[in-house]
Design a protein that fits this description.
There is one protein chain. By secondary structure, the protein is of the alpha/beta class. Among the domains are: 61 residues, no CATH class; 191 residues, Rossmann fold. It has 19 helices and 18 strands. Strands 5-6-7-3-8-9 form a six-stranded mixed β-sheet, with helices on both faces. Strands 14-15-16-12-17-18 form a six-stranded mixed β-sheet, sandwiched between helices. A three-stranded antiparallel β-sheet has the order 2-1-4. Helix 3 packs antiparallel against helix 4, helix 9 packs antiparallel against helix 10 and helix 10 runs antiparallel to helix 11. It is globular. 39% of the residues are buried. The model has no long low-confidence stretch (mean pLDDT 89).
Length: 541
Amino acid sequence: MISARNVTLAYGKRVLFDDVNINFIKGNCYGIIGANGAGKSTFMKILAGEIEPNKGSVDITPGERLAVLNQNQFAFDNETVLNTVLMGHKKMIEVMQKKDAIYMDPDATEDDYMHASELEAEFGEMGGYTAESDAATLLGSLGIAETMHQTLMKDIPSNMKVRVLLAQALFGNPDILLLDEPTNGLDIETIGWLENFLADYENIVLVVSHDRHFLDTVCTHVSDVDRSKIKTYTGNYTFWYESSQLAARQLNDKNKKNEDKRAALLDFIARFSANASKSKQATSRKKALEKLTIEEIEPSNRKYPGIIFQPLREVGNQILNVENLKRAVDGRVLFDKVSFSVNKGDKIAFLSKDPLAITSFFEIINENLKADGGKYEWGTTVTKAYLPVEHNEFFKSGDTLLDWLRNFVPPHVTDADEPFLRGFFGKMLFSGDDISKKTNVLSGGEKVRCMVSRMMLQNPNCVVLDQPTNHLDLESIQSFNEGCNTFPGIVLLTSHDHTFMQTVANRIIELTPKGAIDRLMTFDEYLEDKRVKELRIEMYA
């Protein structure tokens, strides 16, 4: 078990945590959630001993080993990939070094050799004799080829470093595992492997993630960081969100009888508990939900932005035609022979094993980049709004937010006064003096919220979204997701967020060097389809 006792941390007048008391129990996986800046990562660092609180303590059951996903990609530059993973089990490395030092000491005594034999036994109990093969297997599961295992960390790509550091944290079956954004830099297949790994993990896991599908798959509990406190709720992220929304609606319904409210909550718990039996953590989650009482369900204090795209007009029959489009970079073909037409009602998720392929495709159809071959044509009725993955160029002017948004007022808006523009900022939770902020000092999340305000201002009937969840907190991601679900127009998107792709898209197009794979199905159906799997292997060969 790991516990926080009366933990308090403040930076000047800003109080992150005030007398936090919380226990994390073996067999459970806790999703640490909270708005951006609430202190999720800071709390993980307090538990790991990297930050000392102003008051209080962290207690770990004696003898239990804690492992942390290292965020410093350069910390092991001069170590090989394999050694970096082995270094995740510090105690095992210490024991190995002690026993090896005895064997290498020409003056070692008989007592020293007796001690070495004791260390050998301890080393064996820790799995030391199979450590290298175990580490190699773990690396292979995370997509690190054996040919890379003896390479120095400084000589491998950054996306591979992330995987090695994840393997380091997972290595040796730690009793307590702290993972801050573990899916960053992982592809769909590797995220799936990690979900299965953690769903079967029998020790304590604490994870910070903005990936709702990941949280739903692995978590038995949610620990909500809000208003300087942390409260733990039974169930995964979706259960927490839906139950808190239900509780909030019932709280506002003054005419509803208490008995009716109680019945509705009990019915909700029963239905979600039944659905838990289909999850990868079926047994532990179902048991936890069955023990849940309605008193544990509370309304959320969170504020959710209002992301609502309102088309000025409906799209016509011709929306977007793409013929034999091609793009290559430095001799590397990102995609070729891409042809398709967008139809009314389409909400299309784009995939590729090379993320640059989709970004290049979106930049081409938004007239920011030239194709190397082929052509595309938008219909005359289409009004599109584009959220590019890189948008820093939009914020170099140093204008106030109000003046910045004025630059993007479309011709059909004749009266863009301050109250009108404030309305778009208000939907994205900018209020009061926020609109006087300068654009060149905004955080990543604030910039995305400004870009969404700009998109809503266009009244588009087609939105193009390149990684829309980057830099956003879970509340904004949830609202963005729901906004796209209810949007009556066309959606073209790509995202690392599994839930976003699954719940919005009704069509999947994968861009490959040998053409496009185009299927009318959901994201999950696409990933599970045997014929698609075979075709993907062929198209990337």
